[in-house]
Structure formats: C-alpha cells, structure tokens
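Translate structure to sequence.
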C-alpha cells in the first residue's frame, strides 16, 4: 500500500496516508456528529457536534497511528528496517523491509499493536469516566469502544491481521519452519474469512444490507490477503540468501537521452532484446529510464518530436540495489515497485537491471530444483 499523501515523520519513520482514508474519516465524523454524539450528549448545537466529530475522527486516526507506530518501533528494535507507515481504508500498514529472524521477535512485533490499542482504550475509558463535560465524556467513550474493537478485531487469526501473524509465529516456533507456520496459519485464517462472508450474507438476507456487505467484503479481503501472504512467503523462502546478482540482466545498454523516440525505435530497438533502457546526458550522467512498451504506445506524430528524456522515468524515481543484496529482501522492500525495474549499482557503476521476468526465471529454476509447484 503506497501513500498518496505525505504527512511527515515520527521517530524517523515516514508517515503517509492513502486517498481511501478520506472516505472513512468523513464517515466517522458524520456518524459522530449526526448520530452518536446527539444521542450520548443531547442539547448541543449542530456546529458543536460537527467540530467534536471532526476532532473525534482525528483522535481515532491518532490512536490508529499509535497502533502502527508500535509495530514499527518494535520491528526496528529487532533489526527490521521500516520503510514507513500508511494509513488507509482498512486502518494502517507498517511497511517493513525484511522479516524477523525468530518466531519470538515476530510474535512481539505482531502482538504489540493490539496491546497498544488496549492501552489506548483504557486511557479513553478513564477520560470518559472523569470528564465533567458530557460531550467530552461521550466522545471518549466512543473512542474507548472503537479502540477496544480494533484490538479485538486485530487478534482474529487471519492474515494480514496481527492475530494471523501471532498464530503464524506460534506455529513457526512449534514446527521450526517459518513457511510451515505461515501455511497452517493461512488455513486457519481462511476458516475465519469464510465465516465472515457467511455472516455477511446472513445479515444481508435479514435486512441489514450495508453491514452484511461490509462484513462479507472484509472476509473476501482477508481471503485475498491470505493467498498473497502464502505465495509471498513461498517466494521469499525460495529466494532467501540468493544475491541480486543471480537474477540481474547484465551488461546494460544505456542510450543518449537526446535522441528522438523515432530514432530509438528505428535504429536501436531492432538490435537488442531488452525492454528497459537507462538514458544519460552529454556528460554520461544517468538521467532516467525508458521502457519499450511505453514508447511504442506514443501517438505516431509525437515520436519524431519527443526525445527520450521527455518520456523517461526520472532516475531519482527508479529503485536501486547492489549485486550483494539478498533478493528476497529486495522483493519485500520494493513490492510492486519491482515492476518499474531495479537498477543495480556496484561502487557507483551501473552493472545490471532486475525485472519481474528476471525474478520469475530464477524462481522457476529454484522451484524445479526444490521439486515444488510454481508459486503465484
């Protein structure tokens, strides 16, 4: 999950938000202002309810950020790099670059999130009890309820929820195999996901359309996430301790960025089998990366006018690695960013490129050697 809005940094960790956050933020503020607060603390004006509702939505996401931040800080304590935190439609995601090396450390990283939400819920309950103002008491009792539900829901043993990772770490500890732990935890998680879908269908049939559809959608999301987690775990297991150099394409053909797209398609592309080309300026400095697929889709009349630099992805936006980086760690670090290709540098020199096709080719060989069916 990539952030659409950059919010800043906390403890050196990048904090961002996805556009889907706006929908839930508005829904929370609206439900507080028009339903919950007027019932819990009657007698106030509409503007007061709306201001309090907006503050409540902000406090809810502050609590959600505390939940994700606890994951990230504990992960960093155990040597796992943290790329950032993204708040989105379903809550938040801590983007970890790598995996815990032991089952106990994975359990602590997963478990600290729900524990934080329980603590936040307790604090909110305390404020609600001692607050002299009925509006403040009503707001913090609402925050107590949602944080308590957040903690309990995250303990459901299904990926990508914390409960799924906790169960996986326990099964990993018992079996001695991370992949076995993930596989068995996914099987348990699927049961809960199907139960949610069935419950959602039942609610829908009994007249609670919105709640039923929402519960079924969450169940479907958990099913999809479980499949991705299992496939990703299988890939990381096969590629662990394999260097990036084993997958990269080398040598790399670089092109001057001042030639036109037409010149490239007529004189360069027919002579090479590559689909990705770094481009450089007159001094030899890399300025970007062009992809054959993007160039052939340009309207014919633009190909003679546009130069490669005009259509190149800026070099600053292209992910990089070294030949010695662990390939499994690179895949986890970049996720879908791998689709944009990765430039491989060694002592400042460009020595290779890694694409999804390169990884798939190596993965196919590893699966054949291991006698496993292809991973999704």
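Result:
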């Amino acid at each position: 999950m990539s952030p659409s809005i950059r919010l800043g940094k906390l403890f050196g960790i990048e904090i961002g938000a996805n556009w889907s956050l706006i929908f839930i933020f508005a829904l929370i503020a609206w439900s507080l202002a028009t339903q919950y607060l007027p019932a819990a603390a009657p007698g106030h004006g509409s503007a007061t309810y709306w201001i309090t509702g907006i503050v409540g939505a902000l406090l809810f996401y502050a609590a959600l950020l505390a939940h994700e931040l606890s994951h990230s800080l504990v992960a960093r304590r155990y040597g796992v790099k943290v790329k950032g935190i993204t708040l989105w439609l379903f809550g938040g995601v801590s983007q970890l670059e790598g995996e815990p090396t032991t089952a106990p450390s994975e359990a602590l990283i997963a478990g600290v999130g729900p524990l934080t939400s329980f603590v936040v819920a307790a604090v909110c309950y305390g404020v609600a009890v001692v607050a002299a103002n009925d509006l403040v008491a009503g707001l913090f009792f609402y925050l107590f309820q949602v944080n308590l539900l957040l903690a309990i829901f995250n303990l459901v043993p299904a990926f990508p929820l914390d409960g799924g990772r906790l169960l996986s770490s326990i099964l990993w500890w018992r079996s001695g195999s991370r992949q076995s732990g993930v596989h068995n935890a996914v099987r348990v998680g699927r049961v809960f996901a199907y139960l949610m879908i069935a419950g959602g269908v039942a609610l829908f049939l009994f007249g609670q359309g919105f709640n039923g559809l929402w519960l079924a959608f969450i169940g479907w999301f958990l099913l999809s996430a479980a499949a991705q987690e299992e496939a990703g775990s299988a890939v990381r297991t096969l590629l662990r301790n394999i260097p990036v150099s084993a997958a990269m394409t080398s040598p790399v053909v670089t092109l001057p960025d001042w030639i036109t797209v037409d010149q490239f398609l007529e004189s360069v592309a027919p002579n090479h089998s590559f689909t990705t080309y770094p481009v450089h300026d007159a001094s030899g400095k890399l300025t970007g990366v062009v992809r054959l697929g993007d160039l052939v889709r340009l309207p014919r009349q633009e190909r003679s006018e546009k130069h490669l630099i005009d259509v190149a992805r800026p070099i600053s936006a292209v992910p990089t690695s070294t030949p010695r980086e662990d390939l499994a760690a690179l895949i986890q670090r970049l996720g879908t960013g791998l689709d944009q290709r990765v430039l491989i540098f060694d002592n400042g020199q460009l020595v290779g490129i890694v694409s999804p096709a390169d990884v798939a080719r190596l993965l196919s060989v590893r699966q054949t050697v291991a006698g496993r069916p292809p991973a999704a």
